[in-house]
Design brief:
ten-stranded mixed beta sheet; 11 helices; alpha/beta; 14 strands; about 325 residues
Length: about 325
């Protein structure tokens, strides 16, 4: 019988497991502390559990931590970790900055969305990660204690692995788990409307929408999801939500020289986003094989940002990090594995 991992299991589920095994009720609280607060890798090291309790747990379960199999370090300090998971391999990017340290988390092996500009999408889809495999990316890197922010912008579409992502978020934000503020966590989506609506109701974490063009005929060329969930319907759903609290809404916008950075794009973005309290994150295109886009210059990025700002849209340019190790936006892929 394959042993089940306890990493990713909630306090309530641990209470049910403990009751089923006939163990003392307080064992669930002890397990939560050992797993999520102390990151203990083995039942043998959980010294305030009786030997009998440890033996019973060890017979049916594993804690679930596994170290990364490889790490690459960029010249700018970004690190890319490779993790073995049940469906293959995933990559995770650690991005240190002066006042924060962000982890870019993956939720799938590959991706179904097949966005033209994304190396992960070129890999195809190979499977969903479990909540434990998502959380292991956080708990099992040496920089764990430094982490202050999390973005679900690695490999995969979070809304296509909704249940596992939500289970991971519960552990991250619950008082018995990491007790992270939801405003330090951002989940990205191309706009899978049914799950996006659920996310807005069932979570308090920030939301980021992959936008990349305000025009249907352009967006559909680079993002096949536009056929199923058009941007105008995504925006309509977002307008129905109350954004008056601390939760942030942002739009990710990869800038392709001469394709989506014209005055017409500025005008249309202002028209479509003007009624939303949001921010636009501009990302310089990172070239991948067999895709015929060009990267804009820094000056062109600045001009586009300023034009949006002048229209009342808060736009910022996201610094490119880890490009020399293929850890920058859109470059994560384990196809070679």
């Amino acid at each position: 019988m394959e042993k089940k991992s306890l990493l990713g299991v909630s306090l309530q589920e641990l209470q049910e497991i403990v009751a089923e095994l006939g163990l003392p009720k307080f064992t669930a609280k002890q397990l939560v502390e050992w797993i999520y607060l102390k990151r203990c890798p083995s039942f043998d090291l959980m010294t305030n559990l009786s030997k009998n309790t440890r033996a019973i747990l060890d017979e049916r379960f594993v804690v679930g931590f596994s170290a990364p199999e490889n790490v690459q370090t960029s010249s700018d300090g970004t690190k890319k970790y490779l993790f073995k998971v049940s469906e293959g391999y995933v990559e995770t990017a650690f991005i240190p900055e002066r006042e924060r340290a962000t982890l870019c988390v993956s939720c799938q092996v590959g991706c179904k969305m097949n966005c033209q500009f994304c190396q992960t999408g070129k890999q195809g889809f190979h499977g969903n990660l479990t909540a434990g495999e998502i959380l292991n990316q956080i708990f099992s890197i040496p920089e764990y204690e430094q982490l202050s922010n999390f973005v679900f912008m690695g490999m995969g579409e979070p809304m296509n692995n909704y249940d596992a992502v939500m289970r991971a978020l519960e552990v991250m934000t619950s008082p018995w788990g990491l007790a992270m503020s939801p405003t330090r966590i951002t989940v990205s989506t191309v706009g899978i409307i049914p799950f996006m609506k659920r996310f807005l109701t069932e979570s308090k974490c920030n939301l980021a929408i992959s936008l990349h063009s305000p025009f249907y005929d352009e967006r559909v060329k680079i993002m096949p999801v536009e056929k199923t969930f058009p941007l105008n319907e995504v925006l309509h759903a977002l307008r129905q939500h109350d954004w008056s609290g601390q939760r942030r809404l942002s739009f990710e916008y990869i800038v392709f020289k001469g394709f989506n950075d014209t005055p017409n794009h500025v005008k249309e973005l202002a028209k479509q986003l003007g009624s939303l309290r949001c921010r636009v994150n501009l990302i310089r295109w990172h070239a991948i094989p067999d895709v015929n886009f060009q990267s804009p210059s820094i000056d062109e990025m600045v001009r586009f940002r300023d034009a949006l700002n002048n229209k009342g849209i808060i736009a910022t340019i996201r610094a490119s990090r880890g490009q020399d190790i293929d850890a920058a936006c859109g470059l994560l892929s384990t196809k070679k594995m």
